[in-house]
Amino acid sequence: KGSSRVAVKCVASPSVEQTAYTTKVARNENLAKLQAGYLFPEIARKRAAHMLKYPDAKVIPLGIGDTTERIPEVITTAMAERAKALSTKKGYSGYGAEQGEKQLRAAIASTFYQNLGIEEDDIFVSDGAKSDISRLQVLFGSKVSMAVQDPSYPAYVDSSVILGQTGLYQKDVERFAKIEYMRCTPENDFFPDLSNVARTDIIFFCSPNNPTGSAASREQLTQLVQFAKDNGSIIVYDSAYAMYVSEDKPRSIFEIPGAEEVALEVSSFSKYAGFTGVRLGWTVVPKQLKYSDGFPVANDFNRIVCTAFNGASNIAQAGGLACLSPEGIKAMHEVVGFYKENTKIIMDTFNSLGFNVYGGVNAPYVWVHFPGRSSWEVFGEILEKTHVVTTPGSGFGPAGEGFVRVSAFGNRENVLEACKRFKELYK
Ligand code: MLT
Questions:
Q1: Residues 312 and 132: beta-carbon distance below 8 Å
Q2: Composition of the chain by helix, strand, coil, percent to 5
Q3: C-alpha 65 – ligand 1 centre gap (Å)
Q4: Average pLDDT over residues 124-149
Q5: Residues with beta carbon inside 6 Å of ligand 1?
Q6: Got the DSSP string for 380-397?
Q7: R_g of the chain, CA atoms, integer Å
Q8: Bridge partners of 204?
Q9: Closest atom of ligand 1 relative to the 66 alpha carbon
Q10: How far is the CA of 276 from the centre of ligand 1 (A)?
Q11: Helix, strand, or coil here: 202?
Q12: For 326-345, how does the pLDDT look when each residue is reduced to its tens digit (9 = 90+)?
């Protein structure tokens, strides 16, 4: 009932047809710069329209990278126990530390950053990497300049636009003014030619990459760290898919010597333990990372976290701690292994059909090339003819044009069925 004001016509003066009441608040001009809805809800809308058109079709979602496999029991048991304890006098807890529970911070540091110089108090536990990306934008403010890989996870660009770091969207080049787009294509092994990249304050870098699935090598990341050091830039490294790495490639930016002076890292339990709904992630901000005036970035990030967040759910944190027990780690590797098998099935399918296929080996995303074609057109063709939802590459940036991303997050039956339909369509 509270929303009954929406689109209600004013009938007070019948002679003048008035539209609904509006406030005197101007719309945030930065939000007005955004071109369309956020990519994934946009795709969900197209999927819903498709389902209306074909009510009997079995639609298979391989678009948004949403996990489908059950959370291992060792993890849900720990969450259930913590939840139950909340009903006891002894086990009840209210607000926790904004930065996360000490034990979980310590377990994250020792599991993912052993011998990399990262300590427990460098870890900030959160409700997920995506929320932290927006908190980081608030930290940096509207005056910084930004570089992103092109293509890249849309949250980096959209949050930058919302914060006011960019100019207007330029339709002719399909880019926002004042963002440096670092082109990543098969021609450069999906690693930007840094000699052609302008200096920016902040560099977003995701490896293994969403959407291309490529993982940067140690040499490439060493170049990136040196580039940041030469320019006095800060790298925001997104390692949400690190556990999918099977080749000898870094799983954290902090494997690169000196990175602690120029980088921070965001990561997540979502794609390892099926926590897309539970919500748990973390950000590493090393003490050595400083602003130009010598002030530690971590102190300001702590200030943002304490102002904007009351800490991750205590139940989710109990789950996170169970993830990092020896049984939990084993269980997470099994979950990751399952999705990696899906990835292989999808890659083999497109390879057998003669496509150039990228990614997949170190990431749960397969990046399929449709040279000379529009990504949205191919997305539409696949949806119309196979009822499989994918993601158009151009939704991740102009360099994604001509590609389609196929997510390996799906149950086996669906992935096999989708691949059968791909074979029928493109034989
Ligand atoms: C994706 O499909 O790119 C993922 O859902 C990204 C995310 O984790 O938000």
A1: no
A2: 45, 15, 40
A3: 5
A4: 98
A5: 64-66, 130, 153, 210, 270
A6: HHHHHHH-EE-EEGGGG-
A7: 23
A8: 236
A9: 5
A10: 9
A11: strand
A12: 999 999 999 999 999 999 99
What spatial distance separates the first Cα and last Cα of the chain, rounded to whole Å? 54
Tell me the DSSP string of 87-114.
TSTTT---S--TT--HHHHHHHHHHHST
Distance CA(108)–CA(324), nearest Å, equals 7
Write the ipTM.
0.93
**Using one digit for the tens of pLDDT, what is the confidence trace for 403-422?**
999 999 999 999 999 999 99
Q: How far is the CA of 212 from the centre of ligand 1 (A)?
A: 12
Atom of ligand 1 nearest to the CA of 211: 3
What is the Cβ-side half-sphere exposure of residue 100, based on CA atoms within 13 angstroms? 28
Q: Whose CA is nearest to atom 6 of ligand 1?
A: 65
Place of tokens 């990341």: 221
CA 66 to ligand 1 center in whole angstroms: 7
Residue 33 predicted with pLDDT over 80: yes
pLDDT (tens digit per residue) in 209-228: 999 999 999 999 999 999 99
Q: Please give the angle made by the CA atoms of 350, 268 and 124, to the nearest 5 degrees.
A: 160
Distance from the CA of 64 to the center of ligand 1, in angstroms?
Answer: 6
CA-proximal residue: ligand 1, atom 8 (nearest) = 65
Q: In the beta sheet, which residues pair with residue 349?
A: none
Instruction: Return the bridge partners of 170, or none.
Output: 175
- Ligand 1 mutation target, pool 47, 153, 279, 280, most atoms within 8 A of CB: 153
Q: What is the mean pLDDT of the chain?
A: 95
| pLDDT at position 313 over 60 | yes
Ligand 1 pocket test, pick from 209, 210, 366, 409 with the greatest ligand atom count within 8 Å of Cβ, gives: 210
Beta bridge partners of 282: 125, 267
pTM above 0.90, yes or no: yes
The answer to whether 421 touches 59, Cβ cutoff 8 Å, is no
Amino acid at site 242? A
153 Cα nearest atom in ligand 1: 3
To the nearest 10 degrees (0 to 180), the angle between helices 412-426 and 326-352 is: 10
